[in-house]
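Hi Q.,

Before the meeting this afternoon, I wanted you to have the adenosine-5'-diphosphate prediction in hand. No need to reply - just skim if you have a minute. The sequence and ligand are here:
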Amino acid sequence: MGNSLEPIHVLVVDDEENIRDGSERTLSSIGFQVFKASKGSEALDILSGNNISIILLDLKMPGMDGMEVLGRIQKMFPAILVIVITGYATVQTAIEAMKQGAYDFIPKPFEPDQLRMVVRRAAEKIRLVQEAENLANEKRRTLLDLHTEKSRLHTILQSLPNGVLVTNAQGRVVLLNTAFLKQLDLNPDSQPGKNIEDYIPDNNLCNLVLEISRGKHVALDDIPTYEFALSDKKYLLARGRPILSENRECLGAVINVVDITAMKVLDRLKTEFVAKVSHELRSPLATIHAQLALVIQNIVASAVQVDHQILSRAKEKTRGLISIIGDLLDLSRIESGIICREPEPVRLDDILRNVMDFLKTSALGKKQSISLEIFNEPLPMVSADPVALESIFGNLISNAISYTPEGGKIHVRADLADAHIRIRVTDNGFGIEKRHLDKIFEKFYRIKNEKTRYITGTGLGLPIVKELVTSMGGFIEVESTPEKGSTFMVLFPVSMQSGD
Ligand code: ADP
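Predicted structure with the ligand bound:
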């Protein structure tokens, strides 16, 4: 058999040696492996040890009767195809043998061609049976694999520590896992199939899931994130992605929910700790600063130059520390939810002047010119928290001073534009590369390069400014060119205007 890898084993059982040898020659020349037996008992021995598929069996042999051998073979090896060899006189026997289950017969004497044809036909049949069996096995295995794969995925999903919820394009829940039910304090036996509102008690999150299910947020880097609290003891973070088909049609949404309660508690502890430590540090530092200022004055009076320099540097450092502590206190205030104190009627021009006065010494120390220009004077009174406004402009102007080299120019300009009060703080300092522009408003983000290396800071100033400005209904923008300078622009709606 040319197309089979393993040669098919054929056993020739005949008492005539020349038939056995002749058959062996004919069949091995076309790829069969041939075994030979001269009598029935010998045949049965060979059968038990060699994977025989086809038997050529002479029915008329001395010793065991051919029919009896056939009967035994069929009982013990039902898959073997038996071709009986018969003489003309025993056609009747051949028919009998066929009735008993022999596959075919070949009358004796036969030509090699006849033998080849009969055995090939049997081999073909074996091959077909084998193929059908392989197919059936394959199918069984595939089904089993599919089943195992499905239950494996199911087990993995159920064992995930994170909550998982899947919706279809209509926003109906089609799958959820145990962790999700536990996180949302739902009945552990809840089944999918209902609308999203039946599982999630937060309307904003439900709307977000619906939006994702209907094909919003398909961009790869758009991973909507939503934080919500089930109680003051349980905080959850949900992240969602659309499920897209091969042709990018939205089939639904998959939502991953993480319990962030521990993180929240830690965050709160950190904020409380920072607030406490900052408070403890602030007043002794302020005292040292004031005392240093006093000593410096006295030294100037008595004209002792060296100590003056050392002490001035120490005073400058304490000022830096006080400003860092100010940032930390602002941050803890914002994080604990108290963004601004009670608003009161204030004049922005006054605030700006006070801040400029306070920071003038640092600018002059760097031989910088610092100027304030107020259009539309007096600016309308606004209702706001003066401390927050001081913090906003204190941060922007002190940044302008810090990130502008000696001899630079800092200009602050306030005017009215499109129902907004607009304040621009411009410097001709180091400027900011485009790639940093978004990031400088993130907490603790500082640009590190040769020029900024020795400038102390926390990376908290701008995030605080942004948080305060936004909480007042305003917004902040920045334009900057490296080596040329930067302009930070704050816009407050005139509706902040106070009636007084
Ligand atoms: P800090 O000044 O404490 O580092 P900020 O949040 O105030 O923190 O500023 C973040 C970063 O933005 C700074 O480290 C600085 O690199 C850059 N930056 C802020 N203001 C300016 C400015 N006027 N000119 C150039 N760079 C600035």
